Structure formats: structure tokens, C-alpha cells
Amino acid sequence: MTADKKLPSTSSGAEVDAFLKKVAATPSVRTPGERGRLIFAMDATASREPTWDQASHIQARMFQETAALGGLDIQLVYYRGFGEFDAGPWINDPDAMLRRMTGVFCLAGHTQIAKVLKHAVEETRRRKVGALVFVGDCLEEDIDRLGHLAGELGLLGLPCFMFHEGQDAIAAKAFKQIARLSGGAFCPFDANAPQQLRDLLSAVAVYAAGGRKALADYSQKHGGVVRRLTHQIK
To answer: Minimal CA–CA distance to 134: which of 173, 172, 163, 175?
Structure first.
């Protein structure tokens, strides 16, 4: 990816509301009696290092908030460097996930979002995945190729929740299209406001583990951006 430093974007109230409303409206794909499954994919190229450190601690809350719903299995997926792509094991222990994430260092390279989406297609064909979360800041790939893969995910019922850091207009456009074609949602976030990202990721995790009703219950118990869900879920 480019080495230019990008200014962090700030989600407006309307953008956050739109994102959470889309999460609330996404059909639940969890089979009763089974643990929810979520692919947590991140850009681990050089400029993402500060946010990677934040996410290493945020993921623990994703497990905590879903424990009462039967738990959540999370698979960490990332890319970095010269074509390096990694999809780890499915993990349901926050400490194990933290050890895995803190063992990864960011390395300069180009984006590999197509690999993320292709992996998600293959994974959910083997066994249903409730949601794909992607956190990144830029894009250096063919948008049409990504759109095709996102459409496949939409047909499989796997929504992509795309979190965009920074002000890269090309990436924002592509992330929005991936979200729309897969039936998911897009939201920019401010890397200097980790509480916002934590709340948004927790909301998606609760959705993946327990569906819309769990998300509605969660929104009524928590403040911040999540509380905006209360009046949006029927």
C-alpha cells in the first residue's frame, strides 16, 4: 500500500445510525443450537499498525459480549508484506486470540482483499459463517473482481461489515459496494476514537452470535452508538 499518511475519518451520527440500522435489518443466519461464527479480517500492512494494536484488545470484548448467547467462534484473517495471507484456526477463547494477534507485526505491502473474500466464500461453503468483519484503510485491486466475490457472498448469505479507516476515496467507494453486494454494511471510523470501533464491532459480534433479537436486547443495555439501535429494530 502507499506510504502516505492519511488523516483519520470521523463517522457522523447519520453514518453510524445507517450502519447499525443495516446490521439490525440483516437476516439472522445462525442455526439454533450452534455457536455463532465470525471471520475477523484485517489489513496488516504498514500503515495499519496503530489500529492493529487497538483491535488486539477490542476483540476480547467481542467474546465477552457473546458469551451469554452461547458464545462465538472467531477466525482471524490478515494479509501483509509480499503476498502473505493467513487464515488462522477458529478460536473461542479471548486469551488465545489475543496471543495470536499480538504475535503478528504489520509489514508493508499491497492490499489482498480479494483473497479475504474468496476465503470467506470457501469457508462458508464448508460451514455457515454468520458475518465477515473487515478493517482496512485503502485498496489497490480491481473493484469489479471484488464486486463479483462480494456478490457470491451475498448469495451465500454471508454479509460483509466493512470498517474504513482514513480518507481514501477509492477504498471507501469499493468498501461500500462490497457491503451492499454482500448484504452487509459500511462504516468509516476514527482511529483516535477506539470506543466507537469497540462498540460497533461488539454489535456485529452480538448479531453473529444471536441474531437480530440479541442485537436489539444488547442495544438497550449499552450506551454510545449501540443504543441508537433501540428504535431501529422491530
So the answer is: 163
CB 160 within 8 A of CB 178: yes
Q: Are 171 and 184 in contact (CB under 8 A)?
A: no
Q: Rounded CA gap, 183 and 158, in Å?
A: 8
User: Would you kindly state where each structural domain of the chain is located, as residue ranges?
Assistant: 13-228
Q: How far apart are CA 124 and CA 154, in angstroms?
A: 11
Is the whole model's pTM more than 0.85, yes or no? no
**Does domain 13-228 sit in CATH 3.40.50.410?**
yes
- C-alpha to C-alpha distance for 12 and 18, rounded to whole angstroms: 10
For residue range 34-90, what is the model confidence (pLDDT) as tens digits? 678 999 999 998 877 777 777 777 776 677 677 666 678 889 999 999 999 999 999
Farthest CA pair distance, the chain: 47
Query: By three-state DSSP, how is residue 59 classified?
Result: helix
Per DSSP, the residues of 195-210 read: HHHHHHHHHHHHHHHH
